[in-house]
Write a structure and sequence with these properties.
- It is a single chain.
- With 225 residues, the chain is α+β, with helices and mostly antiparallel strands.
- Helix content is 15%, strand content 44%.
- The protein contains 3 helices and 13 strands.
- The strands form 2 sheets. An 8-stranded antiparallel β-barrel has the order 1-2-3-4-5-6-7-8. A 5-stranded antiparallel beta sheet has the order 11-10-9-12-13.
- A hairpin with an 8-residue loop joins β12 (187-198) and β13 (207-219).
């Protein structure tokens, strides 16, 4: 009975998340570390499988991590950040470069669709199952506008428009000071980074914080496209 109640709860949570999507964009909700996440191993043409973790956030953003399983152990991990939306029967993930991925609900699971949003007819399994998991720390390519205000640094993502506080970074701060033309100027930045959850916030739900990892490049003469 307990398993049935959990499954019903997860299904209701996803449907509610989809149904409230338009309202959420009008009024951003507090970040929750474990709102809805899925995990599974998807088929791979030239590796043993792709361990896939999908995190759907209530603000309309997602994080997708893929680990390509190769023998001997030479796994390669990739992650991406973007926007999710719902059509009548599909979940649509839009990457920063505009490319889209499609899934559809199948019971409590999500099933990956092909590049046109159609069902993949195969004996292989293309499903992700609900799973409790930590936010990934795999660096992902990000670009946006950054500004230092006193000791605070804020990042506005180009792909999603979300404004996210950043962890302090001496290398990022120095690059910003060197690139800016005036105090508090918004400066374009591209980098590899990841999100982490800091304790606190309303109702103890935590804050999403962006950490700059590597490949930091700033250009005061550039804007988000």
């Amino acid at each position: 009975m307990k398993k049935i109640m959990i499954a019903m709860g997860l299904t209701f949570s996803l449907l509610s998340l989809f149904g409230c999507h338009n309202k959420i964009f009008a009024q951003e909700q507090p970040f929750e570390a474990m709102q809805q996440s899925y995990k599974g191993v998807l088929p791979c043409a030239d590796c043993d499988g792709i361990e896939t973790s999908l995190f759907l956030q209530q603000d309309g953003t997602y994080i997708l991590r893929e680990i390509y399983e190769v023998k001997p152990k030479d796994n390669k991990a990739f992650a991406q950040y973007g926007k999710w939306a719902r059509t009548a029967d599909k979940l649509v993930l839009t990457e920063a470069n505009g490319e889209k991925r499609y899934f559809r609900p199948v019971g409590d699971n999500l099933e990956m669709l092909d590049t046109h949003g159609e069902v993949i007819h195969s004996t292989l399994k293309y499903q992700l199952k609900p799973a409790e998991q930590h936010m990934p720390q795999t660096p992902m390519p990000l670009s946006g506008m950054v500004r230092y205000d006193a000791n605070n640094v804020v990042f506005t993502d180009c792909a999603t428009g979300k404004v996210i506080p950043m962890a302090t970074s001496s290398s990022l701060q120095k690059a910003y000071m060197d690139a800016r033309h005036s105090p508090d100027q918004l400066v374009f930045v591209s980098m590899d980074g990841h999100f982490q959850v800091e304790p606190g916030g309303d109702e103890g739900k935590g804050h999403k914080l962006l950490v700059a990892d590597s490949n930091i490049s700033l250009d005061a003469n550039r804007q988000c496209q």
